[in-house]
Design goal:
single chain; 371 residues; alpha/beta; Rossmann fold; five-stranded antiparallel beta sheet; globular; binds S-adenosylmethionine
Amino acid sequence: MPDNKKYVELLWAEKYDRYEKGEKKPIEKPNLPFQVVETVNKPRIKGGYTISFFPEDEYPANYSKDWKNLLIWGDNKLVMSSLIKQGWVGKINLIYIDPPFFTGSDFTIRTKIGDEAIEKEPSIIEERAYKDTWSGGIASYLEYMYERLVLMRELLAENGSIYVHLDWHAGHYVKVMMDEVFGPGGENKLGFRNEISWCYRTGGAPSKEADFPKKHDIILFYSKNANPKFNKLKERVYYEKPFFTSLRDASGRYYADVLLRDVLQDKITLVLNNSKLLTVNVKPVINVSAECLNFLTQKSEGLLQVLLMATTDPGDIVADFFCGSGTTLATAEKLGRKWIGSDLSKFAIQVTRKRLLDIHNSKDLTENEKR
Ligand SMILES: C[S@@+](CC[C@H](N)C(=O)[O-])C[C@H]1O[C@@H](n2cnc3c(N)ncnc32)[C@H](O)[C@@H]1O
């Protein structure tokens, strides 16, 4: 523990197992050959089941011809430690993760075949992970997160950032842990940047009458150093009456263009650098959403689009080590970013693989391909 009286640290039962004589034991880093499921090479921007994100003329020119996107099946602790051994330290520009939320049912996958809802029991690998993650309660969950966050920090580029998507179950504990691993922000601006609220109206009513409905997730946003890559995004906000600096658009509505806040909800009208407007739907995926893949914890591409636009440029490398149905990877693909994804569940890998290949196969020729 640093010799600093103002320092605060979260403790959990197994944390000091890795300390010997007051020194930190390094986190194990085995190097295993990968189970690479697919390499999908050409980035696509147009088409698919969502509208194109960018006009074709913004197709990234710097997309390397020899780059191979990676989809890896396995426990991400092994995947990341192998990536570290294989020379990926400091190479990843952005990591987004949406790990299990410590809800107790994170490894049961609900899906649909035809009209029939199916609950898929965890496989043996998933069951083992479930036991590792939850058998010691919150302490083993925190140990599981800590080991992985330390590896993620190593993989991040010096000006890279990370988003950790959680909710009320464990988000506050992981926030304190992130302060330790990345830095608490504050004066030297190291580490912490925002706690983003992703708000929604869907889902059920509270189980106990004394609860307010829980209708937001938190996305912890941290950077590796004090000067991360950050593209300031502006949003157009409409008002019913004229307001301070408000202007009027062609249809007479009052509006102001303001910096995008750390509260994301519904539809956001972004004002692009070329002054064009881009409306992004960040609502959660529900059964009738066009992008729905019947993967219970699937997040929306609109949410990922906003996060990726703020912290990456075309050609950057985006990783999601808990990729689930592949939302981050699909969004990265459509925005012309390179990507690396992994998941423990074979089912998740299959869903992701199909999703990425569908993007790949269902496109008109992009300008890039015509060249
Ligand atoms: C909440 S889901 C992610 C959903 C994803 N964001 C989406 O939009 O579809 C969490 C995923 O993490 C995976 N997972 C849990 N522990 C893991 C581990 N140790 N290594 C790799 N993947 C893991 C689960 O199999 C699950 O697919």
